[in-house]
Automatic annotation (TrEMBL):
Stored Pfam families: DoxX_2
Transmembrane segments: 17-36, 56-78, 90-108, 114-131
Entry GO terms, CC: membrane
Coiled coil (UniProt feature): none
Keyword list, A-Z: Membrane, Transmembrane, Transmembrane helix
InterPro entries: DoxX (IPR032808)
Topology of the protein relative to the lipid bilayer: Multi-pass membrane protein
UniProt protein name: DoxX
UniProt-annotated location(s): Membrane
Amino acid sequence: MTTIDTNPVQTSKGWTIGLWVAQALLAAMFLMAGSTKLTSGSAELVAMGMGWAENAPFLLIKFIGLAEVAGALGLILPSATRIMPQLTKLAAAGLAVIMVLAAGLHITRGEFEVVPVNVILFALAAFVIWGRTNKAPIAARA
């Protein structure tokens, strides 16, 4: 005789805490970076060490900033409110794509010292996607 487990998946507190910490760290980083791009001109960004902004179109810089702020909000709000929590994984995926593109840009510009930051942020975003899919998914509000 076989039994069927009908209990929902039990997640450990450790996974839940670890994922919330990763989400909070990513959200803080991207909220800060995105708001800086939204509120600063290219000359100010270059002075802050973002050399890529010197020749980047104004609207591209603003678009990247808006995408980063939206991603930061998407990492926290859907999970915290439990309204469409699957959007958290999509926000993390979008930020992972931004990091792949940023790493590519820095590599083509010879700015290899920045790439490890892109890799770490990509890894955190991938961890959130994996963890919220497999280890500690958040159920939508009933």
